[in-house]
Amino acid sequence: MSLPHLLVEKAVRAGLLEDLGRAGDITSEAVIEADALANCALVAREAGVLAGLDFARTAFAMIDPAIKFEARIADSARLAPGDTIAKIDGPARGILTAERVALNFLGPLSGIASATRGIADAIAHTEARITCTRKTTPGLRFAQKYAVRCGGGANHRFGLDDAILIKDNHIVIAGGIRAVLRAAKRHAGHLVKIEIEVDTLAQLAEALDEGVDAVLLDNMSLDELRAAVEMIGGRAITEASGRVTPETAPAIAETGVDLISAGWLTHSVRVLDIGLDFRA
After folding, report:
1. Which of 46, 121, 218, 273 is catalytic?
2. Is 127 noted as a catalytic residue in this protein?
3. pLDDT tens-digit profile of 73-131?
């Protein structure tokens, strides 16, 4: 699994420019000899799932092409504490300059992949899949959604132009479920899917009468989810959201929904602890 290099390079370049500021790495230039070489390794400090290796590799390469980056583990792989992710050798100044940007991508993206894997494993006995949302860091959505895939999850919309997703506020302003669905169908192209959010079984019945591609069952109880899945009867994709954790996800998945969405996978990132260890 990988991303187009142009996307990775653009994000890493922005991170390096932000970190280098107006004068570059004045600390390393002051205290490290220009010809000094270093030997180090990216090491997992805790268990998790790896994501973002290309971002780290690109950070070192953009600072100094003479830096050698040898990956030992691939994205999507499970990590154990102490695992060597990659070995890095070359000009010490360049390695130190790129270190923080490399880790700033690797840690958060691996954290997303690890959190996603936790949910994916918890619901593996069902047909349901865990998916992310648009609650991402501006400019890094492509990377964070990639990390979700590394963790065994699926991606929801990448943007407002992917599909029509009618939320509760759209329904209120447009004048109700029937009105909003009819307007959406008049506007949508033949390849554009339409999903609508419902909070009650009565709203669901209205949506099904009009016809829809997918239904977002928001904050419903387990009994309501089971009833909704039965009502839909395969006529639309079912997506459950609200109160999703590794502990609650199995019961939600067992109601028969197709998807479980969780915004916290990307908007409340817990960084996976990964370090760069230098050897004397």
Report:
1. 218
2. no
3. 999 999 999 999 999 999 999 999 999 999 999 999 999 999 999 999 999 999 999 99
Report the CATH number of the 121-267 domain: 3.20.20.70
**Catalytic member of 72, 167, 243, 270:** 167
Domain with CATH 3.90.1170.20 in the chain: 5-116+269-279
75, 197, 239, 258: which one is catalytic? 197
pTM of the model: 0.95
Give CATH 3.20.20.70 domain extents, the chain.
Answer: 121-267
Of the candidates 45, 100, 134, 185, the residue annotated as catalytic is 100
What pLDDT shows up at residue 279? 84
* Residue 87 designated active-site: no
Which residues, listed in sequence order, are joined to residue 44 by a DSSP beta bridge? 274
Q: Is 175 left (phi over 0), alpha (psi -120 to 50) or beta?
A: left
pLDDT tens string 237-256: 999 999 899 999 999 999 99
Which CATH fold topology does 5-116+269-279 show?
Answer: Aldehyde Oxidoreductase; domain 3 (3.90.1170)
CB of 171 within 8 A of CB of 207? no
Question: What confidence score (pLDDT) does residue 70 get?
Answer: 98
H/E segment holding residue 164: strand 164-166
Determine the Cα angle at 90 with ends 89 and 93, to 5°: 120
Identify whether 224 is a catalytic site residue: no
The active-site residue, picked from 10, 135, 182, 226, is: 135
E strands present in the chain: 37-44, 48-49, 68-71, 78-79, 84-91, 129-131, 164-166, 194-198, 214-218, 237-241, 259-261, 274-279
Name, in order, each residue with C-beta under 8 angstroms of 162's C-beta and a sequence gap of 6 or more.
none
Helix (H, G, I), strand (E, B) or coil at 191: coil
